[in-house]
Specification:
Number of helices: 6
Number of domains: 2
CATH class of the largest domain: Mainly Alpha
Largest sheet: 3 strands, antiparallel
Order of helices and strands: HHEHHEEEEHEH
Strand content: 15-25%
Distance between the termini: 31 Å
Structural class: alpha+beta
Helix content: 25-40%
Radius of gyration: 17 Å
Number of strands: 6
CATH topology of the largest domain: Arc Repressor Mutant, subunit A
Length: 137
């Protein structure tokens, strides 16, 4: 997702695009993989002295609710990244650095026959481990 697409989604849902919100979008546009709220707060503190955890968490959850960000949980903590919008796929997620690698195989292809009388509305498949850089470190 691009910053422009994210701003358009905010507008479609009736939200203003403040300077802080644009800075949050810029942070995630530069992020390579999932990032924590703590990382975002450290980044925003450079420009917004005394920014509150509430402001950051409220915006992170807003962005998740409107489809700008997607979340996962690593080591008991929520991590966020820009939502992938171009095509259906899944991710390998590095537990150390949060980087992701796209997985083109979808496990739903294998289980669909077991669910022939069920209506699947959504699914999520993630694999966790270490990327090559973290594994060799």
């Amino acid at each position: 997702m691009s910053i422009e697409e994210a701003i358009e989604l905010l507008k479609q849902h009736g939200y203003k695009t403040t300077g802080k919100r644009k800075d949050i979008l810029a942070f995630f546009s530069r992020a390579d993989g999932y990032r924590t709220a703590k990382e975002l707060i450290r980044h925003l503190e450079e420009s917004y002295d005394g920014i509150s955890f509430d402001t950051v968490y409220r915006n992170l959850h807003l962005y998740n609710d409107v489809g700008i960000l997607e979340t996962t949980e690593l080591n008991g903590e929520k991590h966020f990244r820009f939502n992938c919008t171009d095509h259906h796929h899944h991710h390998f997620i590095c537990k150390d650095c949060g980087k992701t690698k796209e997985i083109s195989v979808c496990p739903m292809d294998a289980v669909q026959s077991d669910l022939h009388q069920y209506e699947v509305e959504d699914h999520k498949f993630e694999i966790y481990g270490l990327c090559p850089a973290c594994k060799s470190a």
